[in-house]
Amino acid sequence: MEQQSKKLKDIIEVALLTAGKPLSIEDLQKLFMEKIERSTIRMLLDEIKIDWQDKSMDLVQVATGYRFEAKVKFSENLTRLNPDRLVKYSRVVMEVLAIIAYRQPVTRGDIEKIRGVSLNPNAIRQLVEREWIEIIGYKEVPGRPALYGTTKFFLDDFSLTSLSQLPDINTIGLESELISANQEKDPSTINDLNE
Amino acid sequence: MEQQSKKLKDIIEVALLTAGKPLSIEDLQKLFMEKIERSTIRMLLDEIKIDWQDKSMDLVQVATGYRFEAKVKFSENLTRLNPDRLVKYSRVVMEVLAIIAYRQPVTRGDIEKIRGVSLNPNAIRQLVEREWIEIIGYKEVPGRPALYGTTKFFLDDFSLTSLSQLPDINTIGLESELISANQEKDPSTINDLNE
Amino acid sequence: MSEQINFESKKNAQVYGESIAQLPQDLYIPPDALEVYLDSFQGPLDLLLYLIRKNNIDILDIPMTALTSQYIEYVERMKQIKLELAGDYLLMSAMLIEIKSRMLLPSPINEDDDELDPRAELVKKLIEYELMKTAAVELNDIPQVGRDRMVAQAYFEKIIEVNPPEVNIDEIFEAWKNVLKRAQQFESHKIERSELSVREHMSMILKKISEQDLIEFSSLFDPKNDPMAKLVVCFLAILELCKERMIKINQQAPCSPIYLKRAEV
After folding, report:
1. Which residues of chain A does CATH 1.10.10.10 include?
2. Identity of the residue in B19, B94, B194 whose CB atom sits nearest the CB atom of C139
3. Cα distance between residue A169 and residue B97, in whole Å
4. DSSP state of B143
5. How far apart are alpha carbons B112 and A193 in whole angstroms?
6. CB proximity B138 to A under 8 Å
7. Residue A32, Cα to own-chain centre: how many angstroms?
8. C163, C192, C197, C200: best mutation site toward chain A, by most A Cβ within 10 Å?
9. Is C112 exposed, middle or buried (0-12, 13-18, 19+ CB in 10 A)?
10. Whole-angstrom Cα distance, residue C79 to residue B61?
11. Pick the CATH number of A91-194 from 1.10.8.80, 3.40.50.150, 1.10.10.10, 3.30.479.10
12. Among C17, C149, C28, A37, CA closest to B79
C-alpha cells in the first residue's frame, strides 16, 4: 500500500516537473491506465506538497492547474544564472508571436500548420513568461489543445489600444506587390525576410 | 556547515529543475555570488544524484552539462499524458539527420547525392529549428553552398557525450552480411520510419 | 546474354540464373496496396535496394538486365497510378540502361588491370545509402528528449527585472510577412482590418468565458453604447468561436436565455 502510493506520487511529481506548464487534475488522471479518483489525486498532491516543504521548490495551484515553482528565496541566485540571457528573441519566437497576434485564438497545432514545421515548446514558453500571450481557452477537439491569444500587456507594451491597430498587410497589398515592393527596396530587406 | 551545504545543494537542484536545458559546471558556479570551486560543485552534484536515487528523476550528465530527466520506468505514464505531443520525424528527416551526423560537414548537394533524390528544404529546416543541425561553414565552390553539421543540442537530446558515441554502423560488416542481415528483418521495416 | 556469360563464372551463377526466372512473379502487389507501397520509397536508390534485397541479389554482383527491367516496371506502375514521380527516378532508369549496355560491350583489350566494372559507381552509391538508412534507423531507436525522455522544466518566476529583449511593432509585422511569404498562402491568410477585430473579439469573449465558465449571450452586447459595427463584429466572433469548436452555445428552450460555455466542459 505504502509502496503503491509512493509510485503514484512519483508519477504525479515527475509529470509536474517535466510538463513545462500547469497540469489540471484531469491531466493528472490521464497519467494512469487505471481510473484514479479526483479525491485521490488531490490527496496525493497534498502529500507531495508536504514532501517538498523543506526542499527547493513549492507545489502551487494556479488558474489552470498545479505546477512546481522555485522557492522565492532562490530567485536571486537563479537570476544570477542568466542575467542577460534574452538579448533578442529568435526568429521562431517572433513568428509565433506574429501568428498569435494576427490569427488568435490559435492552438499550437495551428501555429505548426501555418509554419509548416513542428514547434519547440520553448518559443511559447518565452512568450508566456513575457506575459505577451496566454491561454484563453481550450478547443473541443481530441487532446483539448490550449488556445492562445495576446494579453493586455502585449497591447500595453506596443502602445496599442486594440489589435486592429496592428500593421495591416493589405495596406501594402497583395503578395505580388509585396514581393515586388521588396525587390525595389534596397536588397537588405530581402535578406531580412530570407534569413 | 550541514545547513550551508544543504542550501548550496538546494540552489543547484532548483536551477537544474527549472533550467529546461543542461547546465554546465560553469553555469552552476554563476548561481553564487561567492566563488565556489568546481570540485565543490561536482561533489554537490554527486550528493544530489544520490539524494534522488529513489525518487522520480535521475540527475545525468550529457554533452553540455547536467540535467534532470524522468526515470525511464515512468515514460509509459508520461506518454499517456500527451500522446499526440510526441514529436516524431518522418523517414526523410531521419535519413537527412543520419547523413549529417555521420558524414558531416555536408552540403545539401552531398545529401542529395547520397540519397539519390532531390531534397525538400523542409527536412533541413525542421532539423535547424529543432537545433539539431546548424550551418558550420560554406564550401568554397561556385555558389558557396552551406555546410551542415550537428549541434551540441543534438548530442544532448540523444544523450550522447560526443559523436564517437553514435551507433557504429560500420561494425555491421561487409556488404554481404549487411544484405543478409536486412533480409532477415521483416519487409515491413521499410515502413518503420514512415510515420 | 553476354552479361550472363561475363558473370556466370562468379560464385552464385546458379542462384543468379534461377532468380532471373523468378523475378517477374515477385512484382505482383495487390493493386490497392500498390499506391501506399510505392509511395513509401524514398527515391530511386531506395527502390533499387528494395529490389536487390527482395531478390536476394549479391550487391557486389548485380544482374543488370533483370534489375533494370524490374526497376523500369516499378517506375512505369508509379507513373500509371500518377504518383508524383521525382525526375530522379527517370534519371536512374537512364543510368541503369547505360550501365547495362556498357556491360554488353566486350571489354577493351588494351585496358589496364584495374579496369572499372561499369556497375562500380552504382554499387558504391547503393552501399553508402544502405549504410545511411541503417544509421537513420539506429538513430531513431535512440531515446530522444521530448519523445522518449522527459527533462525537468519546472517554473521559475523571475522576480528581478532581467532586461527582456526589446521588440518593436515593425518586427512583429516583419515576422508576420515572413510567415505569410513562406507559407505562400497569402490569399487564405489575408488579414483585413475587420477580420482582425473579429479575432480580437474572439479572444476577449474566450477570456471572459474562461473566467466565468458560463456567460449569457446578451451580456456580451451593449447596444446602447456600442456602435453598430462593434455589435456585428462581436456577433461574428461568437459564430466563428462556435464554428471552430472553441465554445458551446446552449439554449434550454425557445426564447429562453442563450448561454455560451467553455468548450471543454
Report:
1. 2-77, 91-194
2. B94
3. 37
4. T
5. 26
6. no
7. 24
8. C200
9. exposed
10. 52
11. 1.10.10.10
12. C149
Higher-pLDDT residue of C157, A154? A154
Residue among C53, C143, C144 whose CB faces B183 most closely: C53
- Looking at beta carbons, which residues of chain C come within 8 Å of B69? 145, 149-152
What stretches of chain C show up as alpha helix (H) in DSSP? 2-8, 13-26, 31-39, 44-54, 64-80, 87-104, 120-141, 169-183, 193-212, 228-243
The per-residue pLDDT for C19 is: 38
Q: For chain C, how many residues are written?
A: 265
For C76-123, how does the pLDDT look when each residue is reduced to its tens digit (9 = 90+)?
888 877 667 768 888 899 999 999 998 887 766 555 545 678 899 999
pTM of the complete model: 0.65
C-beta atoms of A69 and C177 within 8 A: no
Do B74 and A20 make contact, defined as CB atoms within 8 angstroms?
no
Q: Angle formed by the axes of helices A91-103 and A108-115, to 10°?
A: 110
- On whether the CB atoms of residues C126 and C59 are closer than 8 A, the answer is yes
ipTM tops 0.95: no
Neighbours of chain A (3+ CB pairs under 8 A): B, C
What is the Cα–Cα distance from A175 to A170, expressed in whole angstroms? 9
Which of B33, B78, B81 would best serve as a mutation to test chain A binding (most A beta carbons within 10 A)?
B81
Q: Which helix (H) or strand (E) holds A114?
A: helix A108-115
Q: Give the angle C43-B170-C126 at the CA atoms, nearest 5°.
A: 25
- Tell me how far the alpha carbon of residue A109 is from its chain's centroid: 13
Binary contact (A164, C193; C-beta < 8 A) = yes
- Is some CB atom of chain B closer than 8 A to the CB atom of A139? no
* Under 8 Å between Cβ of B64 and A115: no
Topology of the domain comprising A2-77: Arc Repressor Mutant, subunit A (1.10.10)
Q: How confident is the model at residue A75 (pLDDT cuts 50, 70, 90)?
A: confident
Strands C214-216 and C258-262: antiparallel
Closest CA to B19 of A119, C213, A85: A85
Which residues 100-129 in chain B show a CB within 8 A of chain A?
A: 122, 125-126, 129
Lookup result for grid cell 542462384: C15
Other Cβ atoms within 10 Å of A132 Cβ, number: 23
Give Cα B149 to chain centroid, integer Å. Answer: 13
Whether C146 sits inside 8 A of B87 (CB atoms) is yes
Quick: pLDDT tens for C184-216. 654 554 555 567 788 888 888 888 888 887 888
Average pLDDT over residues A153-173: 76
Check if the beta carbon of residue B67 is closer than 8 Å to that of residue A22.
no
A179: closest chain C residue by CA: C181
A137·C171 Cβ contact <8 A:
no
Burial class (CB in 10 A: 0-12, 13-18, 19+), C160: exposed
Q: Which chains touch C (3 or more CB pairs under 8 A)?
A: A, B
Nearest to C48 by CA among C71, C66, C30: C71
Give the C-alpha separation, C226 to B58, whole Å.
58
Cβ of residue C265 closer than 8 Å to a chain A Cβ: no
Distance CA C151, CA B21 (A): 8
